[in-house]
Specification:
- The protein is α/β, with parallel strands linked by helices.
- Helices cover 20% and strands 27% of the residues.
- The strands form 7 sheets. A 7-stranded mixed beta sheet has the order 5-4-1-6-11-8-12.
- Strand 9 and strand 10 form a beta hairpin.
- The radius of gyration is 21 Å and the shape is globular.
- The chain starts with 5 loop residues before the first strand and ends with a strand.
Length: 371
């Protein structure tokens, strides 16, 4: 049997409004994670380890920092003469040009270049989730089932389910029902924003949906596309029971870091069999002074710690001055905590500055200090 031709499409163009102010001046996929990574590193690393060599990234909002992070695909062996990384931008020109108005609309507006590539499977990935997954298993199930789409699903709390596409799955793996961000979810099995589509069927159905209305009406997958495929009995589920976290909100982003710092974290970043790869940082080693106390934390290269850091993530170039106390906090690149300041349950954006003797956070809500 011939191996299917797979094209991975990473959706990295959203504004990430729920992460403001962290996304006021950067695309959400370029947001740092665990000190040295960016969110887009996770789907790209998964693609590399899964043996997928054709990866396209859709950009739109604040693309500059994201483009710098992509580095022409070099960290993930995607800087090739044939295939590899390709960036798709919105453009002006023909009747299909203009800003993307959702993920289904983004694919529709790029349908001609996708059709020219002629993949068998279009693997569509979000860039704001933290997880490890062998996409080859998802693709294999998609091809074997003959479905129009295979949705990777996971379980969340009933309270969180209303933020996602909620599915009801039969014993045969067929998705029987789909509800997009329902007010009253009928269960806690949700889509992870990883979809393996039969590429030709997908493009045909997008054309049909556009003919019934207009391209802007396509919006996101959950509005029209996925409900139609489910109604036609053409959607299957791939259950994923590994670690998966949506970090698309301030609370979710902070909580994922706290889970990373747990004694037995659900996500292992230093697994030699599946490392998360990123663009290299040119920083000197971290400097930990004799006056410093560090407990249960991650400290990145270039950081300089003189104070106390507990259960926190200290990013590259961060400075924590003497007698400062940082607890359950995320300090992004080159932020600064002044002497005797106290930062608790907070996120400091890149280059943010907390003045001497200041008190930040310490409430139930995670506080963000903008740059």
């Amino acid at each position: 049997m011939n191996r299917p031709r797979v094209l991975a499409l990473v959706l990295a163009g959203g504004e990430g409004g729920r992460l403001a102010p962290l996304t006021d001046e950067r695309a959400k996929p370029a947001l740092p994670f665990a000190g040295v990574y960016r969110l887009i590193d996770f789907p790209l690393s998964n693609c590399m380890h899964s043996g997928i060599g054709d990866v396209w990234v859709i950009q739109q909002y604040e693309p500059h920092e994201l483009a710098r992070q992509l580095a022409n695909g070099r960290p993930w062996d995607l800087d090739r003469t044939r295939g590899g990384l390709r960036i798709l931008h919105p453009y002006l020109g023909d009747s299909e040009s203009g800003w993307y108005e959702g993920n289904a609309d983004a694919i529709y507006r790029n349908r001609e270049v996708i059709a020219d590539h002629d993949p068998d499977v279009l693997l569509v990935l979000s860039a704001d989730h933290v997880y490890k997954l062998d996409y080859a298993d998802v693709v294999a199930q998609q091809v074997d089932s003959g479905a129009a789409v295979t949705m990777v699903t996971t379980k969340v709390t009933k309270e969180d389910a209303s933020r996602y596409g909620v599915v009801q799955v039969g014993r045969d793996g067929q998705v029987r029902e789909f509800a997009y961000k329902p007010d009253a979810p009928g269960g806690n099995v949700v889509t992870t924003e990883v979809f393996a589509y039969d590429a030709r069927k997908l493009l045909r159905i997008l054309d049909e949906l556009a003919e019934e209305g207009d391209s802007s009406g396509l919006r996101d997958f959950g509005h029209e596309l996925l409900p139609r495929l489910v109604d036609e009995g053409a959607a299957h589920a791939f259950g994923f029971d590994g670690y998966w976290r949506d970090v698309g909100t301030i609370d979710g982003y902070w909580q994922a870091h706290m889970e990373l710092l747990a004694p037995e974290p659900g996500l292992t970043l230093d697994d030699p069999a599946w490392p998360i790869l990123t663009t290299g940082l040119q920083r000197p080693p971290a400097r930990i002074e004799a006056s410093a106390t560090i407990d249960g934390s991650l400290v990145a290269a270039g950081a300089h710690v003189r104070g106390t850091v507990e259960r926190s993530v200290v990013g590259p170039g961060v400075v924590v001055e003497e007698d400062a106390h940082v607890r359950e906090a995320i300090l992004l690149h080159d932020s600064h905590v002044g002497a005797r300041a106290c930062v608790t349950r907070a996120i400091l954006d890149e280059r943010a500055h907390v003045h001497e003797d200041a008190v930040v956070g310490g409430t139930d809500d995670v506080q963000v200090v903008a740059r």
